[in-house]
Amino acid sequence: MIYLNVLKGTNHVDVTFVQGILLEKQFPILKNDNKRKQVRSIQLKTLEDLDHDNFVELLHEASALLVRSKKAWFI
């Protein structure tokens, strides 16, 4: 599951991956802020900060992970 989050008092958007811990080795752009157990995110201040090709690859891998997951997820 992926969601967008604007944190109060910040000037960025978190693009958050609920099971991001499973993707962080392959995609080191994912950060573990606030010492989360599973969630990892990309923090963006502008769209120019986003590496489009890498982000699309990350989305494909997150989608494949969701398909392979045996847990129930709500999208």
Overview of this protein structure:
This protein has 75 residues and is an alpha+beta fold. The protein has one domain (2-68). The protein is built from one helix and three strands; from the N terminus they run βββα. It has one helix spanning 52-68, and strands at residues 2-6, 13-17, 40-44. The chain is globular and about 35 Å long. The model has no long low-confidence stretch (mean pLDDT 84).
Rg, rounded, reads 12 Å
The chain-level mean pLDDT equals 84
Low-confidence stretches: none
SS strand fraction: 15-25%
Q: For the report, how would you describe the main beta sheet?
A: 3 strands, antiparallel
Share in helix? 10-25%
Question: How many distinct beta strands?
Answer: 3
- Helix and strand succession? EEEH
Number of helices: 1
Q: CA-to-CA gap between the ends? A: 6 Å
Q: Quickly give the structural class.
A: alpha+beta
Integer tally of domains? 1
Estimate the global geometry from the Cα principal axes.
globular
Strand order of the largest sheet: 1-2-3
List the helices and strands and how they pair.
Blueprint: E1 2-6, E2 13-17, E3 40-44, H1 52-68
Antiparallel strand pairs: 1-2, 2-3
Condensed summary:
Helices cover 23% and strands 20% of the residues. By secondary structure, the chain is an alpha+beta fold. The protein is globular, with a radius of gyration of 12 Å.
